[in-house]
Model the fold of this input.
Amino acid sequence: MQITIRPAQGKWVVRAAGAIIGESDRALELIEADLPPVIYFPREDIAMAFLDRSDTVTFCPHKGSAVHFTVVGKSNRIEDAAWSYETPDQSVAAIAGHLAFYPDKVTIECL
Done:
């Protein structure tokens, strides 16, 4: 399967639980087959205080195992809203140290 990773153009923001939890002009765009592109944010550009690692782990045969994170706001939790391939397969090593978010759980936009 062809996977392309390239710098995402522009400044990207992720909003959840009524707050901006990430903002980056160093995000990566991952394009996999005919799936919608996924924006991966460098972990340093995410307010990790809003994220708790969950027990959920998923597996992709092309990228490896992904750990998941719950967004914790003042009044709510968004379960498994983000994921990260902490030790991805070598072919997608560029996404190590990055987080991606489910667009149906948070708002991801390019400014």
